[in-house]
Automatic annotation (TrEMBL):
Gene: gshA
Leader sequence segment: none
Family designation: Belongs to the glutamate--cysteine ligase type 1 family. Type 1 subfamily.
The protein's name: Glutamate--cysteine ligase
The enzyme's E.C. designation: 6.3.2.2
Root EC class: ligase
PANTHER family registered for this protein in UniProt: GLUTAMATE--CYSTEINE LIGASE (PTHR38761:SF1)
Catalyses which reaction(s): L-cysteine + L-glutamate + ATP = gamma-L-glutamyl-L-cysteine + ADP + phosphate + H(+)
Protein's organism: Zooshikella harenae
Pathway: Sulfur metabolism; glutathione biosynthesis; glutathione from L-cysteine and L-glutamate: step 1/2
Glutamate--cysteine ligase domain mapped to chain residues: 8-383
GO molecular function: glutamate-cysteine ligase activity
Length: 522
């Protein structure tokens, strides 16, 4: 395998540099619907937004109130973000006295009984989605499922992998394009895991949470005020063990060194019973409580910071799609909503993500050993809980180093990638994004987590009070930038089409649900 400098030299040739313009990114953004006084909305998913089962861009995640906005994958950052802005504008038109919560940690909660699970209708696929969420409630509690985030989907042009494979005379055990591409994306994932703590420092925006989140859960956070708890140096409580971590998953050893071992790890977790989930039971009084009693109900239950992905066909499981056709793109799942941006992510952050992920793809990426895996987990946990702590020490290649020193080294390593991307796009936005993030490294108070805590103190507001003010301000921003008539018409067509598609699905003959589920797992 060539080193990073050789790869950059190859890609810097004018004919090859143009391939970087074909990089694609899509954004999935979650937001809770809330009432005008900051409580979780109890209303059904607005029919004016279409069917959450079949709409390609506006759906729900766990709760009926947890909206999810999905863009296609575009080759232009501004187009991707513009699409998100349009989805938000359209949605806010149809929310009566409701708003979109702009922080990853949830609004005021009043108990599990007031967190409605998303309902997808009476078709088999709709039932499966509901039962899966019912299982999440029994396994982790409903409050955990109200946490929101940004998912950043990313892929480089397939021609880049072919170019590198030909240049480096890839070994004979790589027999086709899919295998070559999958190996390259696994290289990206391993490097991402090594360095993802930096994203938590730069973009973590959830150092505090409303006290109501812990109505039935013990915690070790500190009191900020009567209604808010926090950790003084935390960057992302969302990505701490307050989130989706649990005893069943903590014992998993998911391997990213090869695609077969990754798939095998997931399949094993889906087939291995877990005593605590067996105790819950599969059904009660003829009603499903969860899809199965194994460590994972489905692959998506494994909550990790990054996933290899392949577009699935109807009824196809993600692991089977990966096995059949290899990795198509990666999904970064560790990004908090930025409460200071109307859609939760800025153009500068997207540019930085493209630089960071391109670097992870092109840099050398040896297999991760067990000691290195332990160091990776240690670094990630330290940064989410106390990333802004002065002189915080991380583990790098068996030695201790300060977060600040290592972060500056990484930014320096990213700069040649930024220059290359700017040359390809005839811009300077990628280099400017690095300069902006470097300021956060030099001054932790400029990070989103630092800004949030400072704002709470300056405004003498609780977390919920301040976030409600921000949510209403962002709603006003969208209202003052209405959709074009053409976009309005296009989105309305999608609403009508999605409602019709769900009606057709439910009108079609349905086999017994048990048979449907057995076929899915088969």
């Amino acid at each position: 395998m060539a080193n990073l400098a050789d790869r950059l030299k190859l890609l810097s040739q004018p004919v090859n540099r143009q391939l970087l313009k074909a990089t694609r990114r899509g954004i999935e953004k979650e937001s809770l619907r809330i009432t005008s006084n900051g409580f979780l909305a109890q209303t059904p998913h607005p029919q004016q937004l279409g069917s959450k089962l079949t709409h390609p861009y506006i759906t729900t995640d766990y709760s009926e109130a947890l909206l999810e906005f999905i863009t296609p994958a575009f080759t232009d950052i501004d187009t991707t973000l513009g699409f998100q802005h349009d989805l938000h504008r359209f949605t806010l038109q149809h929310l009566e006295n409701e708003f979109l919560w702009v922080n990853s940690m949830p609004c005021i909660l009043t108990g599990d009984e007031n967190i409605p699970i998303a309902y997808y209708g009476e078709s088999n696929i709709g039932k499966m989605k509901y039962i899966y969420r019912e299982g999440l409630a029994h396994r982790y509690g409903k409050a955990m499922q109200t946490i929101a985030g940004i998912h950043y989907n990313f892929s480089l042009a397939p021609e880049i992998w072919s170019l590198l494979g030909d240049y480096e005379q890839t070994s004979s055990d790589i027999t086709n394009q899919n295998d070559l591409q999958s190996n390259c994306y696994l290289n990206l994932i391993r490097n991402f895991r090594r360095l993802s703590w930096l994203l938590m420092y730069l973009f973590g925006a959830s150092p505090a949470v409303c006290r109501s989140f812990f109505s039935h859960t013990n915690h070790q956070l500190q009191d900020f005020d009567d209604y808010t708890v926090y950790l003084p140096y935390a960057t992302s409580l969302r990505m701490s063990d307050l989130g989706y971590q649990n005893n069943a998953q903590s014992g998993l050893n998911i391997c990213y060194n090869t695609l077969p071992t990754y798939i095998e790890s997931l399949e094993h977790a889906m087939q291995t019973p877990f005593p605590a989930y067996e105790k819950i039971g599969l059904t009660k009084n003829g009603r499903y409580l969860q899809l199965n009693t194994n460590i994972l109900q489905i692959e998506n239950e494994y909550y990790n910071a990054i996933r290899p992905k392949r577009t699935t066909q109807s009824g196809e499981r993600p692991a089977r799609a990966l096995h059949a056709r290899g990795i198509e793109y990666i999904e970064v799942r560790c990004l908090d909503l930025n409460p200071f941006d109307p859609i939760g992510i800025s153009a500068s952050q997207a540019a930085f993500m493209d630089v960071f992920l391109t670097y992870c793809a092109l840099a050398e990426s040896p297999a991760i050993t067990t000691p290195e895996c332990e160091a990776i987990n240690h670094n990630f946990t330290r940064v989410v809980l106390e990333g802004r702590k002065p002189e915080l020490q991380l583990q790098k290649q068996g030695k201790s180093t300060t977060l600040t020193d290592w972060a500056k080294e990484i930014i320096a390593s990213l700069m040649p990638i930024a220059v290359l991307l700017d040359d390809a796009h005839d811009s300077n936005r990628h280099q400017e994004s690095l300069k902006l993030e470097l300021q956060k490294i030099e001054n932790p108070e400029q990070t989103p987590s630092g800004q949030l805590l400072r704002s709470l103190s300056e405004h003498q507001c609780s977390f919920s009070e301040y976030t409600l003010i921000q949510s209403k301000q962002h709603a006003e921003t969208f209202k003052h930038a209405p959709l074009t008539p053409e976009t309005q018409k296009e989105l309305q067509v999608l609403v009508n089409k999605s409602l019709q598609q769900q009606a057709e699905i439910e009108a079609a003959p349905q086999e017994a649900f048990e048979t449907f589920l057995a076929k899915y797992y088969a």
